[in-house]
Design brief:
Layout lengths: L1 E2 L36 H15 L6 H6 L4 H13 L5 H14 L4 H20 L3 H8 L7 H13 L21 H8 L2 H13 L25 H7 L3 H4 L2 H12 L2 E2 L13 E2 L14 H25 L7 H29 L3 H26 L2 H12 L2 H8 L7 H38 L6 H12 L3 H11 L4 H33 L1 H17 L12 H12 L6 H14 L1 H14 L20 E2 L2 H7 L24 E2 L10 E2 L14 H25 L12
Antiparallel strand pairs: 1-6, 2-3, 4-5
Helix pairs in contact: 1-4, 3-5, 4-5, 4-10, 9-14, 12-22, 13-14, 13-17, 14-15, 14-22, 15-16, 18-19, 18-21, 18-22, 19-20, 20-21
């Protein structure tokens, strides 16, 4: 579909389209020449070579960002923003950030290189228009380009093998060289994370060889991951905290950017801007904001059933309310299992609330087992234990209902602080336990005539938590000689040294996290949005409706093939059961004014029209090739090298004939006619390029010094 060609908005570092400056390039080695058709592996190889040369000394993040230590990075950003149109450039930078961050040897240097990759990634986005930033951040790494067409044809030929849980990307090929890639795509959860960790450690090691064997490709586990997902697992909190990235994540949260525009058998998952005139209303079920809202309603109902069962506490039979509670437990368990399968442990383990979910499922399962066994054998004690175990559920269910508060900046900042303080507290308690165990052993043996182990343990616990008078009252009873000095020493250690040290350590942990409070909050927020939106499952049933799909379709899958009719039946069941929810969403959006908004870009600027350059002949043929993401070609940039012909600006007569295809956002825009001012600017830029070309040629030929050149 045709797409309006856009140029980047001018920033303080970008005064218009011009040829990259040749000065200072030799200091940091040759800048990477990244072609549009380079694979993800090739891009990483070229970037890693330059990063290794540009950052050869340990430097902090601020030093790389503000001092001369980051001069090479500034040259790289300027070079990439003007010459690079490869859609995997941001993915590659963040993958390298993860690689250097996980390296064990020479931590100072590798941390500096990891920070350098993160700085280049977010600075590059600031040189792009907002829509281009969306395309780069949401670009999913495909299979190697040379196999892309074959994979697409093979996927179409396997239509009878696709079911509702199959990711809508190529997952299997008939040719044997892609076995590793196929296995990578088919794996999920902890296996996928393990493969990523293994590949990260050898991401740049295999680049020394020229062997292109697919079996040894360390980038294969990154297939189907976009830049934001890589940033989340790579702990790139500064990147995720940038305004341009947060606008994208907020757009996903609000449903302005969607991955599914309709529910049909042949739909394809890809990022696009929401347009209520063309999108299926049922696609709003996948919006993270509405998913979170229904999750809160589900947990509130869950909590009401929980309290009702505890208040009723029927020891003789299972009541109707308790049956509903079991249904809610089953729906919750199946939903969490589906979430873990879809998102995998990559994101599931990073969300602190998922730990609460796992504990809730464990307690619910234990309650159900004790309850059934107790009723079966008529054991009143087991039934009492079952309700006592169920009472523990409130410790996790009540905070889980209130997890909506974590999406606010205030509460979202406190939760990471409490998590870090909890980690440090557990570490410190190891030292406390060692000291406590030593004194407990001594006091128990010395005062064995009057105190047993249990009584002594309780007394020392009271002393540790502040009841010092207990120790002074019993020290003479323990032993007249050894009791007083040992008890005074224990009270001093516990009340002054240990408690003071723990307070100071927790205060330091809080200060350390609160210093980066915004980054921590935005990271938690980003992880939740990505976890809720990156599923490859087309039909997502809200609990408890997911049990209907489980009961109806799971047994049929054992006997019937998972063809298009099977998938269509799931879609119809989803529409029938979720029609009231979609109606409520439509009413909300109508009241909030979202349905009446005429901006088809959902608040994302397409970029100002400016000078558009035709690429030089050396790149024109490559840019005409079909690629998995041709939208990145809409950037008005060109690859320039000394000695190449200067890029020719388009005149007003040339522009109407130019059309670019956008498969990433699936929008269709008309190309704007340039104004007279834009044509004059283009002519001025052409003259500046010619002048720069003369200077470069004179330098390459060792001509006279620049100061002696007459430009008149």
């Amino acid at each position: 579909m045709p797409l309006r060609v856009k140029s980047r908005p001018l920033s303080q570092h970008d005064n218009g389209p011009r040829t990259p400056s040749p000065f200072g390039r030799g200091t940091f080695g040759d800048l990477p020449d990244i072609e549009h058709d380079d694979s993800f592996r090739e891009v990483i190889k070229k970037l890693s070579i330059f990063i290794s040369e540009a950052v050869d000394l340990p430097s902090s993040f601020e030093q790389l960002r503000t001092t001369s230590a980051g001069d090479g990075l500034r040259h790289l950003v300027d070079h990439l923003s003007r010459t690079c149109t490869n859609p995997a450039i941001v993915n590659s930078l963040l993958a390298l950030k993860w690689h250097y961050g996980e390296a064990d040897e020479d931590r100072g240097l590798n941390d500096a290189r990891a920070n350098a990759c993160e700085i280049v990634a977010w600075r590059l986005l600031t040189h792009l228009s907002e829509r281009e930033a969306v395309e780069y951040c949401l670009y999913e790494i495909p299979v190697d380009d040379k196999h892309a067409d074959h994979a697409h044809q093979d996927e179409e030929s396997r239509g009878d093998e696709v079911d509702e849980s199959t990711p809508l990307v190529a997952q299997a090929w008939s040719s044997s060289p892609q076995k590793t890639v196929r296995r990578t795509l088919e794996r999920n959860g902890s296996t996928r994370r393990y493969q990523l960790l293994q590949s990260i450690s050898r991401l740049t090691q295999s680049f020394a060889d020229d062997d292109d064997d697919e079996e040894e490709d360390p980038t294969a586990p990154f297939v189907t991951l976009n830049a934001l997902e890589i940033a989340a697992v790579a702990d790139a909190k500064r990147f995720l905290g940038q305004n341009v990235v947060q606008k994208i994540i907020t757009g996903i949260w609000n449903g302005d950017i969607i991955f599914w525009d309709n529910l049909s058998v042949n739909t394809v998952k890809k990022p696009r801007f929401y347009n209520h005139k063309t999108a299926d209303p049922f696609s709003r079920l996948r919006v993270p904001k509405y998913l979170k809202s229904f999750e809160v309603i589900f947990f509130a109902t869950f909590l009401c059933l929980y309290y009702a069962v505890l208040v009723e506490r029927n020891p003789y039979q299972i009541s109707t309310i308790e049956i509903l509670l079991y249904i809610w437990f089953a729906a919750f368990f199946y939903d969490e299992l589906s979430e873990w399968i879809d998102a995998g442990s990559i994101f599931y383990a990073t969300d602190v609330w998922n730990i609460f979910d796992v504990v809730m499922m464990t307690i619910g399962l234990l309650f159900g087992v004790l309850r059934v066994v107790g009723l079966t054998y008529g054991d009143a004690r087991l039934i009492d234990y079952a309700f006592d175990v169920l009472a523990l559920e409130a410790l996790f269910m009540v905070p889980r209902v209130c997890s909506i508060l974590s999406l606010s900046p205030y509460w979202g900042t406190l939760i990471p602080c409490l998590r870090e303080m909890g980690k440090d507290f557990l570490k410190f308690m190891v030292l406390v336990f060692i000291v406590y165990l030593g004194f407990l052993t001594t006091f128990t043996l010395v005062g064995r005539d009057k105190f047993d182990l249990g009584r002594m343990a309780m007394a020392l616990t009271k002393i540790f938590f502040g009841s010092s008078y207990v120790g002074f009252d019993m020290m003479n009873d323990i032993d007249p000689i050894f009791g007083p000095p040992l008890m005074i020493l224990f009270v001093t250690l516990s009340s002054i040294l240990l408690m003071g040290s723990m307070t100071g350590m927790l205060s330091n942990s809080f200060s350390r996290v609160i210093t980066h409070a915004r980054e921590e909050y935005l990271y938690v927020y980003s992880v939740y949005v990505l976890e809720a939106s990156t599923s490859n499952r087309l039909t997502h049933f809200y609990p408890p409706f997911n049990l209907l799909a489980l009961v109806i379709f799971r047994p049929l899958r054992l006997f019937l093939p998972s063809d298009d009719k099977f998938r269509y039946a799931r879609i119809m069941l989803l529409k029938v059961t979720h029609l009231p929810i979609v109606g409520a969403i439509m009413i909300y959006e109508l009241v909030s004014g979202k349905l009446g908004r005429s901006d088809e870009y959902a608040g994302f600027k397409a970029g100002r029209s400016g000078t558009i350059f035709v690429p030089n002949s050396s790149n024109s043929s490559a840019r005409k090739k079909k690629s998995s993401r041709p939208t990145m070609q809409t950037r008005a940039s060109t690859s320039y090298r000394p000695g190449d012909a200067s890029p020719r600006p388009l005149s007003a007569a040339d522009v109407p004939g130019l059309r670019r295809r956008n498969s990433g956002m699936a929008d269709e825009d008309a190309l704007e006619q340039p104004s007279d001012v834009e044509v004059r600017i283009a002519d001025l830029a052409r003259k500046i390029d010619r002048l720069t070309d003369i200077v470069v040629q004179m330098q390459s030929q060792n001509a006279q010094p620049l100061g002696d050149v007459s430009l008149g």
